[in-house]
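As a warm-up, study this chain.
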Amino acid sequence: MERRFLLVNAEVLPEVFLKVLRAKEMLASGEAQNISEATRRVELSRSAFYKYKDSVFDAENRREVVTIQATLLDETGALQSLLAAISAAGAGIVTINQSTPENGAAQVAVAVRTGTMQMTLEELLVRLSRQRTVVEVRRGL
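Now compare it with the structure written out below.
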């Protein structure tokens, strides 16, 4: 079944959807430490949160999170340069996972929030690929 998205005025939605959004915002900002705390604070059942969490998004925030996977040379400053370029593009860095370097290179996965970027993800990937310490870069799955 193909996913279909609708843009709906929040004022006409059942309150449960707005509570799910608020709980997700609390988790993303660190205002709530876990799902139990977030759902309790917005007076929402955990089962309702889990039922709708992957189906309710705030179109105003444009907070898409994508993963950038890169292979970096094992050199001082390689990760710093990658992160600086991502930040300079206006993306917000959510998480960073780096493997132990093997054979002179390390795998890095950086989850980024793209809503505030001043360029497309493809343009960012091209810029990153031009860095001297970047062996390979692509969008993660």
